[in-house]
Amino acid sequence: MTATEPRRPLAVEDLRKGFADRGNTVNAVDGVSFEIKEGELYTLLGPSGCGKTSTLRSVAGLERPDGGRVVIDGTLVAGVAEGTFVPPNRRDIGMVFQSYGIWPHMTVFDNAAFPLQVLRRKPPKQEIRERVESALAVVQLAGYEGRMATQLSGGQQQRLALARALVRRPKLLLLDEPLSNLDAKLRGAMRAELASLQQQLGITTLYVTHDQAEALGMSSRIAVMSAGRIVQEGTPRDIYQRPATRFVADFVGTTNFLEGTVVSAAPAGDSGPGTRIGTALGELVGTAAPGVKTGDQVLLAVRPEAVRLHLTEPAAAPNVVPGELEQVMFTGECLDCHVRVGDHVWITRQEPRLAAGPGDKAWLELPADALSIVPSA
Q1: Where is the ABC transporter domain (predicted)?
Q2: Which of 156, 160, 243, 255 could disulfide-pair with 248, CB 3.0 to 4.6 Å?
């Protein structure tokens, strides 16, 4: 019998999972802990091999952890110390795989009904029909019940996989790279559709992706993973605008970096700009990550869209560095400007109406509240 705990949609505590590799053990998941609140879409984001899918599979019961605990809706479903392991079919979850897992020989209705048909206590036929029709209506597949699954488009198959996961009305929905097999335009449309549907249903969701745009656009909170560990957790805005490490700043979006030394740190508890950094381009002021102190070797990180480009030197503006335009690319929405600043080329994104070209002198203004200071290691 599983232990009952205070009810929470999902709690993962010190989760560990290793795999054998040529006589060695690789720690795919190395002490991962997080909780998901009711109705959240919580995303595990990271590059291939960082441990995000192994974490999700451990939550689903498709992998048996080597250490730690998984609690779903107040019930311990995996606890190594307790000797508890609940199989996937007895966990109150729905799951959408990267490949969708659609049965090609079944109709849309039969695919969606499959999780109910295989229950030990199968609902009455009328209830199955009502629940399937309701799930298909939610994902905009009403009227497709009799069509063979192979006759659906890629986006429709993705929605069918989602309907099949929802038909059991699970406490927790697990999504493993569900949009990766779609083309870029359809992926963007489905991203908005899936986020809207999750909010409409209010279903607690654990989402796994390597796509930063998906994570930033859809998530309530994001956990960035590297080498089997969570290296930063926060809202999409926090992750993007206040990266805690070089890895996070470099992996999530495009970032300009500049090395420096802390001349004076902001007062303790002050989260605003005020830390002064000595650099090869002069002294600059920015916003430091927690723990940065005077004398530390650090990196200044600033996003391309935060940099203000001037074609004449601005008067009395702080954090201004001179440079020269090397490349200007018109993309329709903006100008991608590559600016030579000392030994580095900085990328900025400016208004498309800016009349600038290669060889022009430029001054880059780096707003202190958009200039993040992170440890160099």
Answers
A1: 10-252
A2: 243
What is the CATH number for 345? 2.40.50.140
Do 225 and 279 lie in one domain? The reply is no
Tokens of 348: 């900025």
Give the length of the chain.
377
Residue 191 and residue 101: Cα distance in Å, rounded? 19
Measured in degrees and rounded to the nearest 5, phi and psi for residue 348 equal -130, 155
pLDDT in the model for residue 308: 94
42 neighbors 205 (Cβ within 8 angstroms): yes
Phi, psi of 116 (to 5 degrees): -80, -35
> How far is the CA of 315 from the CAs of 305, 320, 366, in angstroms?
21, 10, 14
| The predicted structure's pLDDT at residue 289 | 75
Question: Is the residue at 193 inside a domain?
Answer: yes
14 pLDDT higher than 60: yes
Q: Identify which of 203, 163, 170 has the alpha carbon closest to the alpha carbon of residue 61.
A: 170
pTM for the predicted model, two decimal places: 0.86
Is residue 59 situated within a structural domain? yes
Residues 237 and 318 in one domain: no
Token pair of 123, please? 């609902």
Q: Among 38-47, 229-238, 239-248, 259-268, name the one with the lowest average pLDDT.
A: 259-268
Residues 18 and 116 in one domain: yes
For residue 54, the SS3 value is helix
CB of 364 within 8 A of CB of 311?
A: no
Residue 327 domain boundaries:
254-375
Question: Any idea what the CATH number is for the domain that residue 101 is in?
Answer: 3.40.50.300
Do both 170 and 296 map to the same domain? no
On whether both 201 and 103 belong to a single domain, the answer is yes
Residue type, 217: G
